[in-house]
Write a structure and sequence with these properties.
The chain has 334 residues and is of the alpha/beta class. The chain has 14 helices and 9 strands. The protein has helices spanning 16-27, 47-57, 72-82, 101-111, 138-144, 160-163, 176-184, 209-227, 239-246, 254-274, 279-295, 302-311, 313-318, 321-333, and strands at residues 6-12, 34-40, 61-65, 87-90, 96-97, 115-125, 130-132, 157-159, 189-201. Strands 1, 2, 3, 4, 5, 6, 7, 8 and 9 form a 9-stranded mixed beta sheet that branches. Strand 1, helix 1 (16-27) and strand 2 (34-40) form a beta-alpha-beta unit. The longest helix is centred in the last third of the chain and has 21 residues, at 254-274. The radius of gyration is 23 Å and the shape is elongated.
Length: 334
């Protein structure tokens, strides 16, 4: 049997309603030299029956059936360990891949050896239809990761060797993908094909406050981990200001915003020394973040306005006339 070039990893848990459509979107790819590793996480519906039906007619499908529920991070790690392909493609059990997804992604990776991971744009469908466009170029993606995950996880294709032992970590669930890709960014370049090659199913679920809090904590930890590359430690008493310099935080008070501006200057100087990010792109990103932070302040006063005008002249000049006018009148009101 020919060794597959691509290993597709698909975790499954109670996805019977959507699984057939997802599996068929993989089996109908124009690029056909792949294995599809489907990891069933002790589903209580008939997901296993659906997977088994397709396996009987297509030998490219490998089923891993779990006796206990282990979660998607562990499932993907298990898939990575047994994958035979040079390239790894991720897929979720309720999404739909466009027919040319694999063909276009593997062409990018084979033609550009410096690129270790290739994502694509994708389209939300279900409760609403919306095209998601992530940054395309490697340096832009690297900057974007400072504030959010700029790769759609189920659109990922990567070179297996690039991981070099890295894996998904349970402590970051449910944003374990953001964590892993942010760590992989220091080893290789990322690229997003500027075309929607996956339909991403949206579910109208009510997310508990506890889960939202867990997500926010994990996301903040990923951001702090990235700032370590610029010499900023999590124990730094100004760590929140550093995070807010690269990722917009709304409803800050004037004194907090001034601390964020000071932190941003330090980050810019650190990058000049360490050359982690493209300097021009980093400065533009921080500038946009600061302007949005000022626009969304919790309150304003004249002392704050005058301090920006006098002591932060470069930043103040970058604020457009309309925002300056609004800022001035809000500062008058106090």
């Amino acid at each position: 049997m020919t060794t597959p070039e691509i290993s597709v990893i698909m975790p499954v848990y109670n996805a019977a309603d959507f699984l057939a459509e997802s599996i068929e979107s993989i089996l109908n790819q124009t690029f056909t030299n792949f294995e599809l590793i489907v990891l069933n996480d002790k589903s209580t519906d008939n997901s296993l029956d659906v997977i088994s039906k397709y396996q009987r007619s297509d030998s490219r499908i490998i089923i891993i059936n779990k006796d206990i529920n282990v979660g998607p991070a562990n499932l993907r790690n298990e898939g990575l360990k047994i994958a035979k392909g040079e390239f790894i493609a991720l897929m979720d059990a309720d999404d739909i891949a466009m027919p040319q997804r694999f063909e276009k992604q593997i062409n990018v990776l084979k033609s550009n050896p410096e690129i270790g991971l290739c994502g694509t744009w994708f389209t939300f469908f279900g409760s609403e239809t919306k095209l998601i466009k992530h940054s395309e170029k490697p340096e832009d993606i690297k900057i974007s990761f400072l504030h959010s995950c700029a790769i759609g996880n189920p659109t990922v294709m990567l070179r297996k060797q690039t991981l070099d032992g890295l894996q998904f970590e349970n402590e970051y669930v449910p944003v374990e993908d953001y964590d892993l890709w942010s760590r992989l960014l220091s080893k290789t370049s990322f690229y997003n094909i500027p075309e929607s090659l996956l339909n991403y199913r949206q579910h109208s679920n009510n997310i508990s406050k506890t889960k939202i809090d867990n997500v926010n904590r994990a996301v903040k930890k990923v951001k702090i981990n990235q700032l370590r590359r610029l010499g900023i430690e999590s124990s730094d008493p100004k760590i929140d200001s550093y995070v807010n310099a690269v990722s917009v935080k709304k409803r800050l008070f004037p004194d907090e915003i001034l601390e964020v501006i000071a932190a941003s200057k330090h980050l810019i100087e650190q990058n000049k020394k360490l050359h982690i990010y493209n300097q021009e792109l980093l400065e533009k990103h921080i500038e946009k973040t600061l302007i949005r932070t000022i626009r969304n302040a919790a309150k304003y006063n004249l002392a704050f306005y005058k301090q920006l005008q006098k002591n932060e002249k470069v930043l103040f000049r970058k604020i457009n006339i309309l925002d300056k006018t609004i800022l001035f009148f809000k500062s008058l009101i106090g």
